[in-house]
Amino acid sequence: MSDSFLARSVPVTRIGITGLSQAGKSTLITSLINHLENLRRGSLSAQTDLDLLVHGHWLRGGEHSFDYDAGLHALTNQPVRWPTSTTDWSIARIEINVDRPWYSLKPRKRVIELFDYPGEWLLDLMLLEWDYRQFCEALWAWVGQEPRHTVGASLIAELAAIDPLTSVDTAQLAVLQERWADFLAECRIAPYQLSRNLPGRFLLSGRDFDPAEYPFVPLFGLGVVGNDAAHDFPKGSWGAVCQANFDHYRNDQARPFFDQHFRALDAQVILIDLLGAMSAGPAALKDMRAALEGVLEPFRYQSGHWLGQLFRRRIRRVAVCATKIDHLLPDDQHRLQSLLESYLYETVQRLAAASIELKVMAIAAVQSAQRVEAGGTGSLIGRDKRNGEKIHFTPPTLPSTMPHNLNLKIDELPQLAPPAGLDRAQVFPSRRIDQLLAFLLAE
Ligand SMILES: Nc1nc2c(ncn2[C@@H]2O[C@H](COP(=O)(O)OP(=O)(O)OP(=O)(O)O)[C@@H](O)[C@H]2O)c(=O)[nH]1
Ligand SMILES: [Mg+2]
Questions:
Q1: CA dist., res. 41 & res. 45, Å (int)
Q2: Which residue minimizes the CA distance to atom 14 of ligand 1?
Q3: Ligand 1 site residues, Cβ closer than 6 angstroms
Q4: How many other β-carbons are positioned within 10 Å of the β-carbon of residue 65?
Q5: The pTM is what?
Q6: Tens of pLDDT, residues 297-342
Q7: Using CA atoms, how far apart are residues 305 and 422, in angstroms rounded to an integer?
């Protein structure tokens, strides 16, 4: 990594951390740094895989640096709040002292880089292999199913009514592109919580890209979808303009991002809001699983494939983590772990066959609810994220296995505020962050 002189003198482990908007990336990174800064305190010191790591400190500064100060400020000042939402990539660097015997020639320092980027961009992995026509076909299949079919009904009908061979109306295209982005944004949040929202940069463009400069939408009309006899779109037609701008998006935006950043990754963490998807119901669960399958597929490609080269060169470990499990009682936290294992069983098996270690974990970066015993049944107490008021709730009881058809729906969970009294010099209360670090950092 040329951007850091440290990279040349000490070994660097770069870990990608991603997840859809609000999955808990920034909070997790803040908590991971806090754990590494307090390596010899708390449960991390009990992880035998990490017992050579003695002291970690966050390296301030550098380009695109993760704002740990802001995360700490939010979580440890009164009134406590969660880190603010982020819209671009950043890197947190933590230098760690390694305890070696005096005669060892191995390095006595190690740098961990946590690379935070939006999951929306990871989802673009799915479209890297498509041409424009395949893109339209895939999206046509998705919008044929509920809830997308109903949520986007009028937009879908309008896109299907356009004859791709006729001259493009650029004003109408601009409006349709905005409406497509709005449709994606609506699908992403409650009550739908869908995951496969493409193109990802329509939702989160990043600092260097303006989707309006290269507008395109999926066209579902004659000649694009369901017509094998591929014919060229006439110059200046809807089809030609959308195709050219799709190609620009794929080749000059999505692909360079992976080219630039995935070469240097040693491990990848994908955060999912499984509890959120479970409260949205089976359609959200199915869509999330399909999205995960889609983005994990390239990890299996052979090195003859350009994506295979990118992924297989270094990335050997992948963790898929269901976040925010502090919303559950301890027994249900265990059940969520086994639900997640059965939910992703086939994917785990497939990656294992390709020698990629995929671990699925149920975690909480900052435990924000406390258990109380009320009349024999357990319940939880925390504070409301919006107004800080105390809330007392009985979390849902989870089944111990995931139904094969994903026919599962739980009640919506409250949104909690972080707990008061967090301190940088103490390990934040959390669930399984120590195990996640042990998996990612084991030598
Ligand atoms: N109870 C609980 N809530 C959490 C935890 N982590 C995140 N949250 C909630 O999830 C929200 C989003 O967390 P962030 O860490 O900002 O998530 P993000 O993925 O960085 O979000 P964007 O930057 O907007 O994409 C927070 O505002 C909290 O409401 C956790 O460990 N426990
Ligand atoms: Mg964030």
A1: 6
A2: 24
A3: 19, 21-27, 82-83, 85-86, 118, 323-324, 326-327, 364-366, 368, 385, 415-416
A4: 15
A5: 0.92
A6: 887 776 666 677 666 667 889 999 999 999 999 999 999 999 999 9
A7: 47
